[in-house]
Amino acid sequence: MTALEGVALRRRSRIVVARRTGWPAGALAMCESLDAAHPGWCASWLGPNYGRGWERPAGFAAWRPGWWMVGCDDLRRLPQGGIARRVVAWGPSVAELEARIAVIEALHAEEEAKEEQLYSAIRRGLR
After folding, report:
1. Do residues 59 and 52 lie in contact, with contact meaning Cβ atoms separated by under 8 Å?
2. Are 90 and 61 in contact (CB under 8 A)?
3. What would the 3-class secondary structure string for 56-121 be?
4. Which of 45, 59, 48 is nearest to 14 (CA)?
5. Are 74 and 61 within 8 A, CB to CB?
6. Are the C-beta atoms of residues 78 and 86 closer than 8 Å to each other?
7. 69 near 87, Cβ under 8 Å?
8. CB-based burial label for 83 (10 Å; 0-12, 13-18, 19+)
9. How far apart are CA 3 and CA 84, in angstroms?
10. Domain limits at 107?
11. Is the separation of the CB atoms in 48 and 57 below 8 Å?
12. pLDDT single digits (tens) 55-111
């Protein structure tokens, strides 16, 4: 299965999850509009978490399949210790989620630019 097929499957599954778990009115439409506004991201609504050490109010989350970065997993509360993890953005509102997505996309672009500089220097050295 390609990455795009996986995203399409997750989006179809989201409809079933929203119906079965009782998402609030409008949450599914907001997730679909987030997906349209941010290609490559897969948005979802998450109910509140009352688990000790993991407490958070209800809100929206978005995953970026294929991206792994240090410090960009908003649902993980424990220290990450420099380990690259799947990119997850979270916000209690759509506006806050979109702001967090923008920050993560800027960090990712910066990371890719540094990587390209490194590989460019390596290619120059090999010639």
Report:
1. no
2. yes
3. ECCEEEEEEEEEEECCCECCCCCCCCCCCEEEEEEECCHHHHHHHHHHHHHHHHHHHHHHHHHHHH
4. 45
5. yes
6. no
7. yes
8. exposed
9. 19
10. 3-126
11. yes
12. 889 999 999 988 888 877 888 765 566 777 888 999 999 999 999 999 999 999 998
Length of the chain: 127
108 near 69, Cβ under 8 Å? yes
Q: Structurally, how many domains does the chain consist of?
A: 1
pTM of the model: 0.79
Does position 8 have pLDDT exceeding 90, yes or no? Answer: no
Output the CA–CA distances (angstroms, integers) from residue 58 to 22, 49, 76, in the order listed: 13, 7, 15
Q: Which amino acid is at 81?
A: G
Asked whether the beta carbons of 59 and 97 are under 8 A apart, the reply is yes
**Is the pLDDT assigned to residue 115 strictly greater than 90?**
no
